[in-house]
Specification:
44% helix, alpha/beta, 7-stranded parallel β-sheet
């Protein structure tokens, strides 16, 4: 269908009209060819224009921007009765051949009324050879170009073009496709259009009138138009009741940003070509296209996981908090979410705001297999969701109800076909390619497979960062990384913990706490690494040390390591008292990527927290944060803190590094 629509547009046909179809296309092609041949004959056959001797020729075309007061001008010119106009506004003959022949076109004017004038905005983008043919056919021809703020013109033009004959609003994707086609871009290029007409007719017979002038002083502009047509009679009463701005319609923030970005170059060219209209250009820049108020807009959000305030994973809690804020801002929010094996371990979300609806799709091994077969170029997290949600995404993206679009998690954007990406705000929780790289680097099983997945994910992420409207990250580190790879706006929406802050309880001597959802592979790997590789040396030097592993769903591999000094709590509804009782909080992660919310939650409690490079990724420096570059430094940092108990008001900044024989002494000195 998109290919067929492009063919229609290339012949000047609007693919959104009900009349558009194979027969309509055939007729329009014939008309287009007929006018091209006749204009070519006018231009290159010296005797051909003599056929029209004795017939009145047009003296003036009013061309330029659509939806810029030209309908009012046409109506008022008819009311004045001082010029001859065709039976209907915009015959579309010289651009599309709708009247079939020039003789028939000229016969449609009542020359006795006065000079021939046609109000035809679509003549603006005519090719220069057609303009030369018109100048030869109509030796006295002049043009008035009405120039409206390009951003406003683009939006009103899109609504008009894509909404023809439908009886319903067009979708944001329809409008995006129409914005990007060649025909629309020709209309946006004011400077190019005016330059072609001036090249043929000369500056004296080409007048540029900003729409703002027409709106502010229509009577004066009408007088100027008639003067250019050679009419000197005084004006009758001018009716300005119909000027000029109609219904604006709802527009989302991203679509407004796309239009403003698209027309910025056209405005700069216009300023260069017409320096005497600098005030108009300044006006356009000061009044970009603005989105409708959020309370009037409707949001479609795709979430890569199941947002849930009761989830054991921080990402799902953050997604839930984000949804609550969006529901407060927008008229309605519709969420398409995915529930995987880990999400199914959590209790269901009990309630949602009334203006928020959630559609949850289950995702399993079957979807992963079929997705991999259907979309082998996509990483597995994207292909499975693309396959599972293909019908739902198509349905919602083709609904005219939605004005704004949001993808939460890389997995959420993965469900969206690339054609739709420019409409989306993408909130990236973590850089997924880092996860696969770390799994490969740490020698987990199937490292070659993870290497291939990392390669596919890197390619997908770079396309995503360049293809969406804007990107939000959860850390400044990720923001800096993404900004280097794309020209779209990137912002860091910094987050903290997902639990309410409480006063820290009294630390238990020797207690080391690691916490998280133990069903996640990176947490399970970190816990096993802590117990088997780090804890034995800590225990040897500080016998009172003991580990408390806090978090839901510990598996058999983890529970196998339970001992008198290693305790697993399982699910805890409010972990903050246990976290506050820690003498040291630990985050010895080797796998995963993105900001670890667990670290914010312990440092905000005032608990000294030792982190590996992965555990501290995206976390800004903090008085309670200790960064350890390797296992030796990690052990030294923990022992240093245990040796010198740190009260709740802890305010030293620590950094342990390996290769320094005095690392532990340095830590002691800093703690004191």
């Amino acid at each position: 269908m998109i290919f067929f629509d492009r063919i229609l547009a290339s012949f000047g046909a609007n693919p959104y009209r009900k009349s558009a179809g194979p027969i309509g296309l055939f007729v329009k092609c014939l008309q287009y060819v007929a006018v091209c041949l006749e204009l070519a004959a006018v231009l290159w056959l010296p005797l051909y224009p003599r056929r029209f001797n004795g017939m009145a020729k047009p003296r003036l075309f009013v061309i330029g921007a659509q939806k810029a007061g030209t309908t009012w001008l046409d109506r008022e010119l008819r009311a004045q009765g001082l010029v001859a106009l065709p039976d209907a506004k915009e015959t579309h003959h010289f651009d599309r051949g709708r009247v079939w022949a020039i003789h028939r076109y000229l016969s449609g004017f009542d020359a006795a009324r006065g000079p021939l004038v046609e109000v035809a905005p679509d003549y603006g983008p005519l090719a220069i050879w057609r303009i030369r043919a018109l100048a030869r056919l109509c030796p006295e021809l002049a043009v008035v170009f009405v120039a409206k703020n390009p951003a406003e013109r683009a939006w009103s033009g899109l609504r008009m073009e894509t909404g023809f004959d439908r009886g319903a609003r067009s979708t944001a994707f329809d409008q995006l496709r129409h914005l990007r086609n060649t025909r629309t871009r020709r209309y946006q290029d004011y400077a190019g259009q005016i330059a072609r007409w001036q090249t043929v007719l000369g500056p004296d017979r080409t007048r540029v009138i900003p729409f703002e002038r027409l709106h502010a002083d229509p009577e004066r502009v009408l007088r100027e138009v008639l003067d250019l047509a050679g009419v000197k009679e005084p004006l009758k009463r001018v009716n300005i009741g119909h000027a000029f701005k109609g219904e604006r319609g709802r527009i989302g923030a991203n679509f407004a940003a796309i239009i403003n970005q698209d027309v910025a170059h056209d405005i700069a060219r216009f300023e260069t070509c017409f320096p005497h209209l600098a005030q108009t250009v300044q006006d356009w820049r000061q009044h970009p296209l603005r989105p409708s108020p959020k309370g009037e807009r409707h949001l479609f959000l795709v979430c890569g996981f199941n947002p849930n305030s009761l989830a054991t994973s921080s990402g799902q809690k953050l997604a839930y908090q984000n949804l609550l804020q969006l529901a407060r801002d927008y008229a309605t929010v519709h969420v398409l979410a995915f529930r995987n094996r880990l999400d199914r371990l959590d209790p269901p979300q009990p309630d949602w705001p009334k203006n928020l609806t959630v559609e949850v799709l289950e995702i399993g091994p079957k979807d992963r297999i079929l997705g991999a077969l259907a979309y082998p170029h996509l990483p597995s997290f994207a292909s499975a969701r693309r396959w599972r949600a293909r019908q739902q995404v198509a349905k919602h993206m083709n609904s005219p109800e939605f004005t704004d679009f949001f993808a939460d998690f890389s997995q959420g954007l993965g469900a969206i076909p690339q054609d739709f990406w420019p409409l989306f705000t993408f909130r990236q929780h973590d850089v997924v390619s880092n996860l696969y790289r770390r799994r490969m680097k740490n020698g987990v099983r199937f490292s070659l497979l993870f290497g291939f997945e990392a390669w596919r994910t890197v390619r997908w992420e770079e396309r995503a960062w360049r293809g969406v409207c804007n990107v939000e990250t959860l850390s400044q580190t990720d923001c800096d990384l993404v900004s280097c790879k794309t020209l779209v706006p990137v912002s860091a929406q910094l987050v903290r913990g997902t639990f309410a802050s409480t006063p820290r309880s009294k630390p238990v001597r020797g207690r080391l706490v690691f916490w998280g959802n133990m069903a996640r592979a990176e947490n399970e790997d970190a816990a096993i690494h802590l117990i088997t590789s780090l804890f034995p040396e800590i225990k040897r030097q500080r016998p009172e040390a003991h580990i408390l592993v806090v978090g839901a769903h510990p598996g058999k591999r983890l529970l196998h390591h339970a001992a008198d000094d290693v305790t697993f709590t399982g699910f805890v509804e409010d972990p903050m008292p246990l976290l506050g009782s820690a003498e040291v909080a630990l985050a010895p992660l080797r796998l995963g990527s993105g900001v670890k919310i667990k670290v914010f939650e312990t440092i905000d409690l005032g608990v000294p927290t030792v982190v590996s490079p992965v555990g501290g990724e995206g976390i800004p420096d903090h008085p309670c944060l200790v960064r350890a570059e390797d296992d030796e430094a990690f052990i030294a940092a923990v022992i240093g803190i245990l040796d010198h108990s740190v009260p709740t008001g802890y305010s030293a900044s620590l950094l342990a590094r390996s290769g320094n024989s005095g690392a532990q002494d340095e830590l002691v000195e800093m703690l004191v």
